[in-house]
C-alpha cells in the first residue's frame, strides 16, 4: 500500500473515531508505551509504526527500527509460539496521545525475507483496562505499588502474523488481538530500495533458520 493510500485509510479511521472520546478526564499517566518484539531468531525491522488515538490525532513513526528479538547461541532459543508475558519490547513512549484507537505497522520480516503491513484496532474494552489501576506486589521493587497496563506490545512473526498485548511494569500481560498482516507487494521501503532489506540476519539467526527452518503456524 502506498503512502497516500495508507494516509487515506488512517484519515477514514479518524472520521469514524475522532469525535468519540467519552472518557472526560486526562490519562492517569504521562504517556503509554508502544513496543515491538518477535520470536527468537525471527528478526524484524520496522519501517514505520503509526498510532491513532481516540481523539483522532495521528502519531506518525511513533516507532521504527529494530524490534526486540533474542538470538541466543547454540540454538538455545525457542521461536515457536508466544510467551505468556512477552515483555515491553523495543519501542518508545507515545507522548501527547490519548488512548490508542488504531496502530498501523509496516515491517520487514528479515527471516524470510518479506515485507508486511497490518492495521491493529484497539478495542474499547482494552482502553478501559488501560485506565484501571491495580494494587500489585512488585518483586523487582520489593514493595506494593499502584500499577497500570499502559504498555502496548505488538509481536511480529514470519508470515505476517501479529499479536498484541497490554501489560504493566508489574502487571501480567493481557492479550488484545491477533491480526494477520498483508504482504506489501512493492517490497521493502515501499519499493525505494531496489529490493534490499534493512539488515542482514545475525549469524545465530541465519544458522538457526538454515538448520531448523521457520516454524510457520506456531504463532
From TrEMBL:
PROSITE patterns, sorted: PROKAR_LIPOPROTEIN
The protein's name: DUF2931 domain-containing protein
Organism: Pseudomonas kuykendallii
Amino acid at each position: 500500500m502506498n503512502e497516500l493510500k495508507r494516509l487515506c485509510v488512517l484519515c477514514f479511521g479518524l472520521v469514524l473515531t475522532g469525535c468519540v472520546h467519552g472518557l472526560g478526564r486526562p490519562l492517569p499517566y504521562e504517556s503509554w508505551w508502544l513496543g515491538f518484539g518477535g520470536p527468537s531468531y525471527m528478526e524484524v525491522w520496522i519501517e514505520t509504526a503509526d498510532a491513532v488515538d481516540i481523539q483522532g490525532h495521528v502519531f506518525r513513526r511513533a516507532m521504527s527500527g529494530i524490534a526486540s528479538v533474542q538470538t541466543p547461541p547454540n540454538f538455545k532459543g525457542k521461536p515457536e509460539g508466544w510467551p505468556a508475558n512477552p515483555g515491553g519490547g523495543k519501542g518508545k513512549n507515545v507522548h501527547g496521545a490519548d488512548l490508542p484507537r488504531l496502530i498501523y505497522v509496516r515491517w520487514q520480516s528479515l527471516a524470510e525475507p518479506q515485507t508486511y503491513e497490518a492495521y491493529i484496532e484497539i478495542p474499547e474494552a482494552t482502553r478501559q483496562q488501560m485506565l484501571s489501576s491495580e494494587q500489585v506486589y512488585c518483586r523487582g521493587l520489593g514493595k506494593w505499588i499502584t500499577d497500570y497496563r499502559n504498555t502496548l506490545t505488538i509481536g511480529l512473526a514470519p508470515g505476517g502474523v501479529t499479536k498484541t498485548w497490554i501489560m504493566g511494569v508489574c502487571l501480567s500481560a493481557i492479550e488484545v488481538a491477533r491480526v494477520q498482516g498483508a504482504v506489501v507487494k512493492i517490497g521493502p521501503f515501499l519499493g525505494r530500495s531496489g529490493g534490499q532489506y534493512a539488515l542482514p540476519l545475525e549469524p545465530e539467526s541465519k544458522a538457526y533458520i538454515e538448520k531448523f527452518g521457520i516454524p510457520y503456524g506456531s504463532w
